[in-house]
Amino acid sequence: MREHNYRIVGKYPEGQNVWLNARDPEGNEEAQRSKGIGSRLLGEGEAHARKLGATRARVDTFEWQAPAFYLKHGYRELLRWSDYYQGHASSLMVKDL
Question: Which residues does residue 57 pair with via DSSP β-bridges, in sequence order?
Fold first, then answer.
């Protein structure tokens, strides 16, 4: 399938996931919220992606997680699935790097 795609749009690098987490020594995330860590992690992840040649970033987030956070950092909502899981919406957000 990849070779078929290459014939149409040319060769492109395979996508890579970058997982970003901030936890205290006990493994808790909640105590680390609202300290600017997420913004720093996101910035580092985007910088890493740029070094690898990425031109776009993509995130999936539930409505109760962080859509406003990503909007604040220049992402835009490309797609929203209402009632995606147990009545909660999920958003696909993208940003040009």
Answer: 95
- Tell which residue, 95, 9, 12, has the closest CA to residue 52: 12
pLDDT tens sequence across 19-77: 777 777 887 777 777 888 889 999 999 998 899 888 999 999 999 888 999 999 999 99
Sequential DSSP letters for 2-67: HHHHHHHH---PPP---------TTS-SGGGTTSSHHHHHHHHHHHHHHHTT--EEEEEEETTTSH
Number of Cβ within a 10 Å radius of residue 61: 18
d(CA 64, CA 90): 9
pTM: 0.77
CATH 3.40.630.30 fits 2-96, yes or no: yes
> Please, what is the Cα angle at 12 between 7 and 15, to 5 degrees?
130
Residue ranges per structural domain of the chain:
2-96
